[in-house]
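Researcher: Sequence of BlaI/MecI/CopY family transcriptional regulator follows. Predict its structure.
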Amino acid sequence: MSRENRLPDAELEVMQALWQMEDYPVTSAQLMEKLAGRHWRLPTLLKLLSRLEERGFVAAQKEGRTNYYRPLVGEREYLAAESGRFFQKLHGGSLPSLVAALMESRSISPKDVAELEEILKGGKGK
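Model: Prediction complete. Tokens:
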């Protein structure tokens, strides 16, 4: 996944909704229902889905007058790529830099540090 495959916020919201759904493929109406809190209109969602299809994140299949969508990129795959870019860009790949920044901002608790230590030791963590 290359840099140009980073999703803008609105497209990411659509993908997150799609990833949360269980039975694929899904219709745009099902996605509208899942995204009800966004108060988007159907044309907005359809445009976002079209962009996601062009970029290779979703596949669309037309049956009659209805399009069905399914993700082509998994949530874990996308999060791993984004996390790697973030880690490299902001911390130069330095784990101590990342952890120090999180601790300074109080974004990480002692419990989080203990779980991180467990993960680094080869345990499962959470």
